[in-house]
């Protein structure tokens, strides 16, 4: 079912209304999914055709998808936003920094909005389960195809990609490599992968690494038996079942990568593929056994180190920057179990939170409490401590107590 939905969203896409507080516009855009590059794409649509791609969001950067119209983008256009029910809207929170970006959209009906939310959540889970080689392939395709999904790239585009890789190579050498694979002034994706392989492994030959060279008789490839010896002698993997599992993972990763990049490559593991394995999560020093908490979690709370946050509401510096309820959501979803609330008397009898005596912006206490309730136990089941720096008068303290009871209910520890 989901595969058919993804196919439709990839092939024809959907026209959605995009709300953006940065450009201060509400516009219709054609949204599609690029499965092979792992991207959500939107474009300006002309009469019977797509004129230009205007933006993308990488699936790997998506942290949360909410089905509502609660975002700064929607708040900037209240009249337009109210034309759509909450169930027709969704907000994508994405980015690699602490402060996330938002993509706010409204669909023509609830069914379409649900399809997009379900599809993006599915793609996020799919990416999390991908092997290193699958993620590498996505990255290569993303770099090669670019925003406008080019099927061939010129020497200048190749130079730009290599520069983003922070790899130093002479223009002459790069030009010579390009000419080996070019056709009519461009190279295909297969040629691009071949050049990437040659560049990324040119200084990583087995002859320069005697410890690794001992596990390859041919010096060009590594057999299953040689890889088994590497696991046993270098990695200290003596469990036969674990050895079989590691070999199966490497074999599957290689087959997947070859199928998606160059199906003509067959045979034993190449040196570049072996090096990919060494740098992948499959070869992580972290033992996955420790993914499951094995410590005694029944001791008094004072017996534990607790992941805590100071001035949780701030998204930047402590003097002039923004306060945001999203900072609480972000911290809690990152595993924080103690957040801080600096409460002050606010207008209309409503307590507020900000860094007192500074120019930081103010947010409503009741909004923060609601956000904490929504995100407190998404990542962790363990208790959340609210560290309150109290500056409110008695009347607003009573208002705070009421919000605690109304919002948290029986979840309050007594």
What do you see in this structure?
The chain is of the alpha+beta class. It is 40% helix and 18% strand. The protein has 15 helices and 13 strands. The chain has helices at 2-11, 72-76, 78-82, 110-128, 132-145, 155-164, 171-181, 189-201, 210-213, 224-233, 240-261, 271-278, 325-333, 365-375, 394-408; strands at 14-20, 25-34, 39-46, 49-58, 62-66, 89-94, 101-106, 221-222, 269-270, 338-344, 352-353, 363-364, 385-390. A hairpin with a 7-residue loop joins strand 10 (338-344) and strand 11. Helix 5 (132-145) packs parallel to helix 11 (240-261). It is globular, with a radius of gyration of 26 Å. It starts with a helix and ends in a 6-residue tail after the last helix.
Enumerate how many helices there are, as a single number. 15
Largest sheet, order of strands side by side?
4-3-2-1-7-6-5
* Principal-axis shape: globular
Helix content: 40-55%
Averaging pLDDT over every residue, what do you get?
A: 88
> Residue ranges: pLDDT <50 for 5 or more in a row?
none
Structural class: alpha+beta
User: Termini separation (Å)?
Assistant: 46 Å
Largest sheet: 7 strands, antiparallel
Radius of gyration: 26 Å
The SSE string, one letter per element, is: HEEEEEHHEEHHHHHHEHHEHHEEEHEH
What's the quaternary structure here?
Answer: single chain
| DSSP E strands, number | 13
Estimated share of beta-strand residues: 15-25%
């Amino acid at each position: 079912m989901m595969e058919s939905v993804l196919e439709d969203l990839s092939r024809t896409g959907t026209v959605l209304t995009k709300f953006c507080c940065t450009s201060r516009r509400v516009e219709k855009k054609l949204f599609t999914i690029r499965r092979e590059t792992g991207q959500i794409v939107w474009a300006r649509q002309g009469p019977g055709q797509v004129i230009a791609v205007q933006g993308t969001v990488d699936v790997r950067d998506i942290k949360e998808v909410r089905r509502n119209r609660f975002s700064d983008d929607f708040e900037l256009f209240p009249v337009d936003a109210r034309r759509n029910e909450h169930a027709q809207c969704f907000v994508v929170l994405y980015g690699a920094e602490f402060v996330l970006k938002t993509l706010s959209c409204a669909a023509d009906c609830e069914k379409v909005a649900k399809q997009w939310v379900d599809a993006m959540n599915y793609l996020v889970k799919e990416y999390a389960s991908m092997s290193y080689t699958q993620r590498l392939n996505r990255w290569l395709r993303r770099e090669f195809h670019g925003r406008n999904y080019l099927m061939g790239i010129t020497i200048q585009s190749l130079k730009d990609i290599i520069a983003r890789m922070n790899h130093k190579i002479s223009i002459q050498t790069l030009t010579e490599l390009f000419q080996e694979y070019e056709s009519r002034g461009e190279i295909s994706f297969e040629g691009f992968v071949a050049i990437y392989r040659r560049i990324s492994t040119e200084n990583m030959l087995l002859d320069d690494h005697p410890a690794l060279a001992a596990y390859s008789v041919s010096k060009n490839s590594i057999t299953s038996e040689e890889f088994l010896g590497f696991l046993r002698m270098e990695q200290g993997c003596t469990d036969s079942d674990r050895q079989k599992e590691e070999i199966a993972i490497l074999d599957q990763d290689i087959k997947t990568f070859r199928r998606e990049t160059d199906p003509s490559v067959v045979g034993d593991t190449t040196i570049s593929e072996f090096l990919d394995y060494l740098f992948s999560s499959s070869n992580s020093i972290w033992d996955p056994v420790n993914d499951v908490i094995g410590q005694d979690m029944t001791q008094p709370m004072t017996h534990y180190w607790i992941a805590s946050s100071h001035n949780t509401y701030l998204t930047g510096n402590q003097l002039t920057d923004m306060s945001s309820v999203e900072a609480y959501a972000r911290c809690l979803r990152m595993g924080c179990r103690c957040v801080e609330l600096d409460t002050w008397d606010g207008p209309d009898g409503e307590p507020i939170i900000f860094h007192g005596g500074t120019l930081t912006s103010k947010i409503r206490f009741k909004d923060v409490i609601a956000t904490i309730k929504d995100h407190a136990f998404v990542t962790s089941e363990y208790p959340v401590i609210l560290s309150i720096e109290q500056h409110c008068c008695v009347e607003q303290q009573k208002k705070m107590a009421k919000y605690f009871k109304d919002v948290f209910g029986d979840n309050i520890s007594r």
